[in-house]
Specification:
632 residues, alpha/beta, Serine Threonine Protein Phosphatase 5, Tetratricopeptide repeat, 38% helix
Length: 632
């Protein structure tokens, strides 16, 4: 057989195609499977039809046809037999007889359905016939077959998957795609839920089937969460809302989200709300200045979650229930279903207040201290952040009497909140005040309850982080507050804020910061601390020893300290860089967050020292790193 094939290939190479066909046919008939006789090919199978109907070419080729020819037909993986058929098909291709070539390719497929030769041959000829999709399906069937085949007789078997993949590659991008709607409906819904709400509308124009399917009750979930993007091309019209909201099913939308840049008219917003009586969540990141929420109907008895932010300072400067003003009546009408933040929200774990509240009033929590035992027993995280006290539009200096009054009122409120459950449920406390107003929050001066003292009403046994980035506290008071958290080995993060002000008579620059740090001698070497913040220190200029610059050795005493947040308004950037160099050299830090690194004046020495010690310097341009929600 090998000699006959060799002779046929020589004839094919010299374009003697008819003589080549004779040699290849003789080689086929000399295979032991044919016993020297002419064998007919089964004509019952139609692989192209099977492929068009989504059937498996491989499974069809493996099965034995029950016809008379099929019963006598034998499988054969003789490589010479397969080569003879392959070359004969190539010869028919050269003669332009593609129908004959297809028959020989299918014959190979029936003889050895687990080998790649038939798939490669049939796919090649199908491509010549411009039947690219059929060719792609043939190659895919060959890949399916190769996964079930062991190393055997075909010389192409070792590299068959790669050959089939290479042959299929030019076609794969075109024909591997499936209509999304052919997937299970649950998966279709999940995919389309990833789109912005306004991106769904172009999908309805793909074809009639898409429009019919996506607007069917089966996919009503797609239309129940209405989210307008930050930069919509245009605002929705009332007539569009009347057409779209009913797609969500009875009761209309379940949630409505208006981003800070959403432009929506009063009529469109009213239409949207009226068509959604089963609304559960409403969020307006910035309520448009010309819009108000309905106040004349009690229409939304399932509304349970509301976020409404003012456009600029309009909640303070515009009367309630007016366009752009605070929607007081709307919220009162929905009060029966809303989750209240106090007693009706008993499992609250994380509370973040700010940054745009002008102040906090302590009256609600100061009226009855006995309620503390019942209020928010699971509260773990308490964060407060504000950049100003009072109305931003009516600017007042930070040291004005009115700002001082609002700041003290806010600190009093926070003192009460930190004493909930005697502070034992709290794991993280983070407060950020305007710098001038960051006086000690645990002070009891000017409290509404004069006899109230935080240290008498709180234990903080489970406190993990205590961060008051702008609040300077006396070290002895910090010790009283944190002693239990340190004893229970829970405290891992803390901020030290140094006192401000010029040196007093007889003192040198830096004495106050040195004395303040000495007050933390009890804190030195705490093994559980892995993150520290140091702010607004001022040590002696041109420090040459640890007495003049004690901060590096203080930080080096913490064996597990890995992260440092550091900045001081009392240093020029190059001078602060030298402090950082000293800190890096004597600690085992991995990460330093600093505003110094954001400055272009940073010298090369700091960069080089950080690289040498494996420390990552992370610049802080505006805000310090903040995690929300906090993972306990």
């Amino acid at each position: 057989m090998a000699d006959l094939i060799k002779s046929g290939r020589r004839c094919h190479a010299t374009a003697k195609y008819k003589r080549a066909l004779t040699f290849f046919t003789k080689a086929m008939r000399s295979c032991p499977c044919s016993s020297g006789t002419k064998l007919d090919k089964c004509t019952c199978r139609n692989f192209e039809k099977i492929a068009s109907q989504g059937g498996s070419i491989f499974k069809e080729a493996v099965e034995i046809c029950p016809c008379n020819v099929g019963i006598l037909f034998k499988k054969c993986d003789n490589p010479h037999h397969i080569q003879a058929l392959d070359f004969r098909a190539a010869t028919y291709e050269a003669l332009g007889k593609l129908d004959q070539a297809i028959k020989d390719a299918e014959w190979i497929l029936e003889l050895a359905p687990r080998l790649p030769d038939g798939y490669l041959c049939l796919g090649r000829i199908a491509r010549q016939q411009k039947k690219d999709e059929y060719a792609w399906k043939v190659y895919t069937a060959g890949i399916e077959a190769s996964r079930e085949s062991a190393v055997g007789s075909s010389p192409k078997l070792q590299s068959s998957p790669q050959e089939l993949y290479r042959a299929r590659e030019p076609l794969h991008w075109r024909f591997s795609r499936r209509d999304l709607l052919s997937l299970p409906s649950e998966l279709v819904t999940q995919i389309f839920l990833e789109l912005e709400y306004t991106e769904l509308f172009p999908c309805l124009r793909v074809c009639k089937q898409w429009k019919h399917t996506l607007t069917s009750p089966q996919h009503g979930n797609l239309w129940r969460d209405i989210r307008f993007p930050s930069y919509p091309n245009r605002s929705p019209r009332p007539d569009e809302i009347r057409r779209v909201v009913p797609l969500a099913g009875p009761g209309g939308a379940r949630s409505i989200f208006l981003s800070s840049m959403t432009e929506i008219s009063q009529s469109a917003l009213t239409q949207l709300l009226q068509l959604s009586p089963n609304l559960e969540i409403f969020a307006a990141c910035k309520l448009p200045w010309h819009c108000s929420l309905p106040s004349d109907v009690k229409h939304w008895n399932r509304l349970r979650f509301v976020i409404i932010m003012a456009y600029r300072d309009h909640f303070h400067s515009i009367p309630v229930d007016h366009p752009g003003g605070f929607p007081k009546t709307f919220l009162q009408n929905a009060a029966n279903s809303l989750f209240l933040l106090c007693d009706a929200f008993p499992r609250l774990e994380q509370l973040k207040i700010g940054p745009d509240l002008p102040h906090l009033s302590p009256e609600p929590v100061g009226v009855s201290p006995k309620r503390w035992e019942r209020l928010w027993p699971h509260l773990k995280v308490l964060k407060f952040d504000t950049c100003y006290f009072g109305d931003e539009i009516n600017y007042r200096p930070l040291d004005s009497p009115e700002v001082d009054r609002l700041a003290e009122m806010t600190r009093s409120t926070l003192r009460y909140l930190t004493c909930l459950n005697r502070g034992n449920s709290l794991e993280h406390i983070q407060f950020n005040f305007p710098h001038r107003n960051g006086r000690c929050f645990s002070s009891d001066d000017h409290d509404l309850l004069p006899d109230f003292n935080v240290t008498e009403h709180s234990e903080y046994r489970n406190l993990k982080s205590f961060n008051l980035r702008t609040v300077c506290m006396p070290p002895d008071r910090v010790r009283t507050l944190l002693c239990n958290a340190i004893e229970t080995n829970k405290l891992t993060s803390f901020d030290i804020v140094f006192p401000q002000g010029p040196p007093t008579a007889g003192e040198r620059v830096g004495d106050e910061s040195i004395r303040h740090l000495q007050g933390y001698e009890w804190f030195r070497g705490t093994s559980t601390i892995h993150t520290l913040g140091c702010y607004d220190f001022r040590f002696r200029p041109d420090a040459e020893n640890d007495e003049d610059l004690p901060l590096p050795q203080f930080l080096a005493s913490f064996p597990n300290l890995r992260t440092l947040c550091i900045d001081s308004k009392n240093y020029y950037r190059p001078e602060l860089a030298s402090v950082l160099v000293a800190i890096i050299k004597c600690t085992h830090l991995k990460t330093i967050y600093t505003q110094c690194y954001a400055d272009r004046m940073l010298d090369r020495q700091l960069r080089q020292v950080a690289r040498d010690h494996g420390v990552e310097l992370i610049p802080v341009i505006e805000d310090w790193p903040e995690e929300w929600p906090i993972r306990s």
